[in-house]
Amino acid sequence: MLFRGTKKYPIDNEFLQFITKNGGRSCGYTSRGYTNYYCNSTTDTLWELLDRFSRFFSEPLFSESSVEKEIYAVDSEFENYKADDDWRLKQLKQNLAVPNHPFNHFAIGNKQILWDIPKEKKINICHELKKFHSKWYSSHLMNLAVLGKEDLNTLEEMVVSIFKDIKKKNISLPSWTNPIYKEEQLATKTIVVPVKDIRALIINFLLKDQQPNYKSMPTDYLTALFSDKGPYGISSVLKKKRWSTGVMAYNINETRGIEYYEIYAELTEFGLGHVDDIVKLIFQYVNMLKRIGPVEWFYRETKDTQTMDFCFKDKELPFDYVRTLTPQMIRYKMRDVLIAENLIEDWKPELIRELLTYFTPGNMRITVISKTYQNQTNAVDKYFGTQYSVFKIPEETLKNWRNAGYCEYLKLPLSNPYMAQNYSLVPIKHNEPEIPQLVHNTSIMRIWLKTDTVFRLPKAYISIEFYSPIVAVDPFNCNIMDIFVRLFNEHFSLHSCVAHRAALDTTMKSRTFGFNIKFGGFTHKMHHLMKKIIKKLFTFKIDPKRLEIIKEEKIRDLNNIDMEVPYESAMQYSSLILSEVAWSPFELLRFFHNINVEVVRHFIDNFLTHMFIEAMLYGNLDDRMASILIHELKEVCLLRGGFRPLVPREMIRSREVEMNDGENMLYEHVNPVHSSSCAYVNLQCGIENTKNYLLVRMFKQIIGEPCNNTLRVQEKLGYVVKSRVQKSYGVLYVCIFVQSDRDPAFIDSRIEHFLSTVEGLLKDLSETEFIKHRESLSIRLSEKPKGQIEQAKIYRSEIINQCYNFNRVKIEVEELKLITKNDIIDFYNEKISRTGSKRRKLAVHIKTPMNDTIDKLKSSSKCPANNDSFATMNVQKINDINEFKRSHRLYPVPRSFTPIGSDGIEYPDDKDFTFYEEEQLRRRTKMSEAASYST
CA–CA separation, 317 vs 851, rounded Å? Predict the structure, then answer.
């Protein structure tokens, strides 16, 4: 509500308009103990920004019309979360707390609680909001972080002059020291029926507030041990017993005075029958830790890693940095705000011993989550509809856990071999290139290298792409690729977990055409980890028992995709329809049987003997590291019998389906779980080139705030309203989506109605306002990366997408100067307007079975009448996605995509496309065959 007008700036959306025109963002969130407001601007408008921002806390309006709009937004937000298992479990955790404790309350709110019931009781909401603001928004309870390019004295003078009018009130900061669970709520077992097909065991131990111990971080010490994925940790032992696929552990500080420790275990189907055994194993691990006592060498390893990680910390994005500073100003002494969550200063083993005393059966709550509990529960959460039951754990079981004893397989981790000792920087060569250079280019691999000359940290980032066209041939191969990656990640976690403790990370992910491996962290031991993972990759032996568990996990994940929130589901179907190579969950499930060890091994052998590798090395690296990587990859490739490189036509990546001018396609899908629906509108805007991209970005820059204000605020259509620019395989899109409780066809018509008003918006835009928008976008485009990680992502994106346009920013900023208001109007009239000659629209509607019923019950005052008849828009429905793809052309490889063939020759898109068309025909045939397979 504070964003919705103040005495000095009374216009409802003036603040958001100001933010948008100056290339910034704004948001806020409420935790249990504080509310955080944050915003930024990319132009030289800090004083104006702070002046508007400060008024929130001294003179908000709380107009009744705005209050009602925001309550509808809150209600829509609640509807979005109703089928989210995380939110359902959070609310259940609160519901089962001590009755009448402040923790035991409804966390989100909805229209009934915030509007209907108060109106019945003659309570004035605006008055209540003003009372709340008047009571709690006191200067001594508020913390402010400001980041600007001005010097500290100037910033301080600015802040004091602008914020000095916020009053100090007679109120103190509350703390909640009474326990949220007492004897009646502890030593209990809760069974829960989830929405998605998930199986999990959650164990909570109530703790004394650990906030005062932040200098020694005893909970971090325990978390590092409980989360150990090495051969002697809880996770590995549970995997060997086939009870769990993974364990996470962490302390949760809800707010001042309320803290507990949580251990979360993903269960296998077999493990669901061994919950008591898993709990016993955890107590055996606790007993081992108590017997051995706190170990100083392990503490030193953790402390040294955190110290060096902080000393060589990458800069954060300013927007994120200021947002995280203000809560830390509440939690810690002012002199510790910048370091408190990064450095362990004191070794206090007595605090660790004290912490372990809380890990007892009588101080514990267990929650078990599974679909198998359907029809076995006796209670329903009144807010989310979660089905559950709560039982007291039998005394005999508690006694068994108290006398759990020890497990011979559970031990402390070994000393970490990946701890960096050398933090020296590689020398910078004379005339070091400004962009990545191609240091190796053969029929087997391409290697790009860029030594960091800007941030100069002893860290590096390596990304290796393993590519082969055999993966995307059919859903069966895609399944095998993903299963192999999951198996390998699980197997290699024994090493990756240890490396992570040394601030050296590695991740491996499956992709449409293979898989990607990334390394990041301190350079010193990186080559050891890199060598090990490459060697393991080519010698990895598959465990048949683990394969069956991973298959079962993959099947559940595929079944759960249809239960994603509607707007995410809409994005997935949009991508599925418009991407040349993409498979639906149904298709992947259909081609899942008959996957066994021999099938996976045979497929991976084929993949690893017929592939192409492309890698990026960036950071504190030089030619030596590139040579090591090249040697390791060459050795494993060339030593494998039968290895053969790809030919040029096999190097073509996936492309987008090219819609026809004037085409207006609709795909509908029913989501049976969520009460919200979604209309997702894609307007296909052609192949990416510099000017096209800038036109799309400028259009989005201009319509972003009006779109949100019209559809979310004024028409109250839903909480999730978004306009965005999307690039997919070199093709540009303007996308608008709304998640709502209204019928998607109605939402679609309102999006169309908004787009019809954009013509007037563009024509009414003064030249001064247009230039302001253009300057704002220019500043955002030319904003330099703040750290190594951000720069690495930019380089990696260019390489993965095969654009290699490393000077993109300079080119775009220069081209942007030439974009005029008439260019945007022409772009709108041609590709966005409903009558545009080159308009290409795909709408994805995610419906709920309740849509028709709900829509009839809506009050006409909630939304404008639907004057745009969706039925008269010449809509063609897509009933068969594969048939839609077969009936359309594919976009040619855009100019920015210049794939270098295995013979080293570039194939630009404006010369000879014969082999591209042949490849397109071959792929369509393959896809058609795959679609007609039967199991």
Answer: 41
DSSP 8-state assignment for residue 741: S
Amino acid at 266: E
At 862, the amino acid letter reads K
Interstrand relation of 841-847 and 677-687 (parallel, antiparallel or unpaired) = antiparallel
pLDDT mean values, one per 10 residues, the chain (935 residues): 91 88 88 92 88 94 87 89 94 96 92 94 94 94 94 95 94 92 97 96 96 94 92 94 94 94 96 97 97 94 91 89 93 93 92 97 97 96 96 97 96 92 92 92 93 96 94 93 95 90 94 94 95 90 93 92 90 94 91 91 92 95 92 81 84 88 95 90 94 96 93 89 92 96 94 96 93 92 91 94 90 95 97 96 90 46 50 79 92 55 35 38 44 35
Residue 671: partners with Cβ closer than 8 Å, 6 or more residues away = 562, 563, 566, 569, 677, 846, 847, 848
The DSSP call for residue 360 is S
**Residue 897 · residue 554 · CB < 8 Å:** no
- Mind giving me the DSSP string for 827-844? HIIIIISTT-TT--EEEE
Q: How many Å apart are CA 375 and CA 373, to the nearest integer?
A: 6
Q: Which of 18, 53, 72, 6 is nearest to 711 (CA)?
A: 72
Report the candidate in 176, 143, 242, 20 with the shortest Cα–Cα distance to residue 708. 20
Q: What is the CA radius of gyration of the chain?
A: 29
Residue type, 373: Y
Distance CA(16)–CA(421), nearest Å, equals 49
Chain length of the chain: 935
Decide: 137 and 57 in contact? Cβ < 8 Å. yes
Cα separations in angstroms, 502 against 294, 305, 308, 882: 20, 6, 10, 47
